[in-house]
Every structure is written in structure tokens, then in C-alpha cells.
Design brief:
This protein is mainly alpha-helical. It is built from six helices and three strands, in the order H-H-E-H-H-E-E-H-H. Strands 1-3-2 form a three-stranded antiparallel beta sheet. A hairpin with a 3-residue loop joins strand 2 and strand 3.
Length: about 130
């Protein structure tokens, strides 16, 4: 299988923030959440990802297998790798949990130190332009 047309025009920049296999898994997960890879559709093979991104095939396999272990991707023997039913929901649930841990909890701790009221926090959030 070749890399999808969606990937032909996208260059994944590996930032050095974490191992490359984790960055690849995150990029694939982003594509699943965004709908670029809908549930029950094929995704490129680890070999395709390795060739496209000029990385070691073992590194690409490790990234893909991370998503297999999460139940997001599954292998059809002799056919390829596919997005599992419910994959988007699994990924959104994980991301929401991570968002709470990485952003909301530290925000609330700092707000308590600064003695902001809940109303003041809500007002600050409401004033922000989400774009």
C-alpha cells in the first residue's frame, strides 16, 4: 500500500520531543482523530511509513504497534493494517484525560495559589478567543 494522498503533501517534522516512534504514533493518532483515516479503513504499513519518513523500519513498526496495543489499529493478516471501530473514541478519551492532567490540574493549583475564585477563572476563559 502506498502512502495516502493526504500524506503526500504533509511533512511530519520530528521535533526531538520524545522518541521518534512515539511522535509517529501521535501523528497517526492525530490523523485518526481528524478523520483522515476513518474507522475500518486501511492505513499505510509500517514499511510505507519508514520509507516515506526515511526512518528505520523497526522504529516505524514500534510506533504502529503502540497503536495496535491500544486497540486503535488492527492487522488483517495478508491484507494490512486498519483503523479499529471505536478508535477515534479511544483516542479522544485518552487525550481528554491527558488534557485534564497536563493543563487543567496545574491551572487549578496555580489559581488556588493566586486566590482566584471559580467565577474569575470562568470569566478569564470566556474572554479568550479560541481561534
Amino acid at each position: 500500500m502506498s502512502i495516502s494522498p493526504l500524506m503526500d503533501y504533509r511533512v511530519i517534522m520530528f521535533t526531538g520531543e520524545g522518541p521518534i516512534f512515539q511522535q509517529l504514533a501521535a501523528r497517526i493518532a492525530d490523523d485518526i482523530v481528524s478523520g483522515a483515516y476513518p474507522e475500518e479503513t486501511a492505513v499505510p504499513s509500517a514499511t510505507d511509513f519508514a520509507v516515506f519518513h526515511q526512518m528505520n523500519p523497526a522504529t516505524a513498526s514500534k510506533g504502529v504497534n503502540m497503536l495496535v496495543s491500544l486497540g486503535v489499529l488492527y492487522k488483517k493478516r495478508g491484507i494490512g493494517m486498519f483503523v479499529a471501530t471505536g478508535a477515534r473514541k479511544i483516542l479522544l478519551t485518552r487525550r481528554r484525560d491527558e488534557f485534564r492532567t497536563q493543563y487543567v490540574q496545574p491551572l487549578l493549583r496555580e489559581a488556588a495559589v493566586l486566590e482566584f475564585t471559580a467565577a474569575e477563572l470562568h470569566s478569564m476563559i470566556d474572554e479568550q478567543d479560541p481561534a
